[in-house]
Specification:
Blueprint (H helix, E strand, L loop, with lengths): L15 E4 L2 E7 L4 E7 L13 E8 L1 E6 L2 E6 L3 E4 L5 E5 L5 E8 L19
Antiparallel strand pairs: 1-2, 2-3, 3-9, 4-7, 4-9, 5-6, 5-8
């Protein structure tokens, strides 16, 4: 095996403030990307779509996801799939910060800056 094997702690990674009430950090491999999101009550909800399949796993709190024409509530320990190119959004339910882990494949180039701290992991 070549390269470096490093272990990271989510809470120690550089966190990006996306907008009021939303922050995130990420970790990637060659072909997949994990993005940890913190969603605060009252955050600005912005429906969007992208060409990536998204798997969302809720670690804490509850999130109301709108995926296309469907609305589902997802709680801690539950997962939901968001297909590519479908307009979707999520917002926390209640007064608890929701924490969700998104998995994207392939790696999103528009999120690659979130993993700049991993550069040495990919030098062989």
């Amino acid at each position: 095996m070549s390269g470096n094997v490093n272990v990271y702690r989510w809470e120690s990674l550089p966190r990006e403030n996306v907008r009021s009430g939303v922050s995130r950090t990420a970790f990637r491999g060659d072909n997949a990307l994990m993005v940890m999101n913190w969603l605060e009550p009252g955050m600005d909800v912005r429906p969007h779509s992208h060409p990536f399949e998204q798997l969302a796993y809720i670690l804490a709190g509850r999130v109301r996801f709108t995926v296309g024409d469907e609305v589902v509530e997802v709680g801690a320990g539950e997962v939901v799939r968001i297909p590519p190119d479908v307009v979707h959004c999520g917002e926390p339910i209640g007064d608890e910060v929701a924490v969700n882990l998104d998995v994207f494949a392939p790696v999103r180039d528009d999120y690659r800056h979130l993993t700049a701290y991993q550069e040495e992991d990919f030098t062989h």
